[in-house]
TrEMBL record:
Protein known as: Dihydrolipoyl dehydrogenase
Species assigned in the record: Crenobacter oryzisoli
Domain FAD/NAD(P)-binding: 7-325
Gene3D superfamilies, alphabetized: 3.30.390.30, FAD/NAD(P)-binding domain, Fe,Mn superoxide dismutase (SOD) domain
Family under the similarity heading: Belongs to the class-I pyridine nucleotide-disulfide oxidoreductase family.
UniProt enzyme class: oxidoreductase
Keyword Oxidoreductase: yes
Length: 462
């Protein structure tokens, strides 16, 4: 068996793994990155980028159908060619993946090892016919879609988001389970592209929202466009030939049976740690098999093993994976003198229409007696009405004792941009008054944010 000796072994060549490798090399350490699958990050292959390509096509179709209120009439049938839609999605997706692969190609051959790594002990890995002796290890193996066992009865009628981007054409019908980020984005996009869609959830959730008022507004807004049951009562799911058959109680309280070409399980993701041989290490693991670790330093116990990115499931977002990978690589390089990760302001965006965003602390995690809530509806907001994008509600949360901005939740127009303004404000620890002292141009959607801030300031003054 071949023997390889390095300072740091990084398992996984996704966003976190590549960042960890580069940080280790920048610290002057020898390092190897180990990858058993295809190169290219989750975001580029099956996540944020291909989903936005599908959403862009859906938005184009939707806008064409809604020009008449402006006095602009599109005569004739609007034809959606599913094969052309999916061809562009795959072509552009492959282009994004190519950028990542070219970055990997720039890594010296001696620093790359293809194959699946398994721990023999804390610092010894086996990768096919190679034993890797490392002083420290970074686990950056990403995550995979989690499939609840009842869905297995659907056989090949069951798909995950990874499968959608391999389609050559659009199906006639899809049932989506899970109205979270992935389910909402793909469900609405497929509906706008002419696919018959029904979205089912549990416990009433809509996206990542925790503020009941914002969540209720979102539910109603989406239900006006496509079938959404956030707290669905599904009695049975089975496969019948080339169809998935669901028996459920509909929104009118009636039990119905309906067939779909596919069932899309957008029911969360699980860290890829099952086949790493972690039972051979000294690490204590949780019920999912994930090593217990310090979220500030990413260190697993007191061991020389670190875990970063989607594999630890703290904040499964690309920018967080990059930050965590860099921190894990740096801490592996300086081990045992590790330092805490300086996390950025929490920020989340759902690219639905209207868009959803959350910044800072969630409403559910705040004490309602200690905050002032500033509100604005976008239904009468000037620029939003001009664009006929006047659907939305924003809440901003402020500390009654200090006046500091604590967080926000929103559904509405241009939420992706407002989220960044608020994330910068949160990270800068600004007060509501300081935010109101900033410039607001006219007429822009951001004037709605100013209205919410003024409402919060008035409530703070009481």
């Amino acid at each position: 068996m071949k023997q390889l000796h390095v300072d740091i072994a990084v398992i996984g060549a996704g966003t976190a793994g590549l960042a960890a490798y580069r940080a280790a090399k920048a610290a002057g350490k020898t390092a190897v990155v180990i990858e058993g699958g295809a190169y290219g990050t989750t975001c580029a292959r099956v996540g944020c980028m291909p989903s936005k390509l599908l959403i862009a096509a859906a938005d184009a179709a939707h806008e064409l159908r809604h020009t008449a209120p402006f006095g602009v009439h599109v005569d004739g049938e609007i034809r959606i060619d599913g094969r052309e839609v999916m061809d562009r999605v795959r072509r552009e997706r492959d282009r994004f993946v190519g950028f990542v692969v070219r970055g990997v190609d720039g890594i010296p051959a001696e620093d790359k090892l293809e194959g699946y790594a398994r721990f023999v002990d804390n610092t010894l890995l086996e990768v096919d016919d190679t034993r890797v002796h490392a002083s420290r290890v970074v686990i950056a193996t990403g995550s995979s879609p989690a499939i609840p066992s009842p869905f297995k009865a659907l056989g090949d009628r069951l798909i995950v988001n990874d499968d959608v981007f391999s389609w050559e054409a659009l199906p006639e019908s899809v049932a989506v389970f899970g109205p979270g980020v992935i389910g909402l984005e793909l469900g609405q996009a497929l509906s706008r592209l002419g696919v018959r869609v029904k979205v089912f959830g549990v416990r009433g959730g809509v996206g990542p929202l925790s503020d009941p008022a914002i969540r209720d507004y979102a539910r109603i807004a989406f239900q006006q466009e496509f079938y959404l049951a956030p707290d669905a009562d599904v009695k049975e799911m089975r496969r019948d030939g080339n169809k998935a058959v669901l028996r459920f109680v509909d929104l009118n309280g009636e039990e119905v049976t309906e067939s779909f070409d596919y069932v899309l399980a957008a029911t969360g993701r699980s860290p890829n740690v099952q086949n790493l041989g972690l039972e051979n290490t000294s690490l204590t693991r949780d019920a999912r098999g994930v090593p217990l670790f310090d979220p500030d330093t990413l260190q697993c116990g007191k061991s020389p093993i670190f875990i970063a990115g989607d594999a630890n499931n703290v904040l499964p977002l690309l920018h967080e994976a990059a930050d965590e990978g860099k921190a894990a690589g740096e801490n592996a390089a300086r081990y045992p003198k590790v330092l805490p990760l300086n996390r950025r302001a929490p920020i989340a965006v759902v690219f639905s229409d209207p868009q959803i965003m959350m910044v800072g602390q969630r409403f559910a995690d705040l004490n309602a007696n200690e905050i002032a809530v500033g509100e604005v509806s976008f239904e009468d907001q000037g620029r939003s009405r001009v664009m006929l994008k006047n659907r939305g509600l924003l809440h901003v949360y402020a500390d009654k004792a200090t006046g500091r901005f604590l967080g926000a939740e929103m559904i509405g127009p241009r939420a992706e941009h407002i989220a960044h303004l608020l994330a910068w404000s949160y990270q800068s620890q600004l007060s509501i008054d300081a935010m109101l002292a900033m410039p607001f141009y006219h007429p822009v959607v951001e004037e709605g944010l100013r209205t919410a801030l003024r409402d919060a300031a008035a409530k703070l003054a009481v």
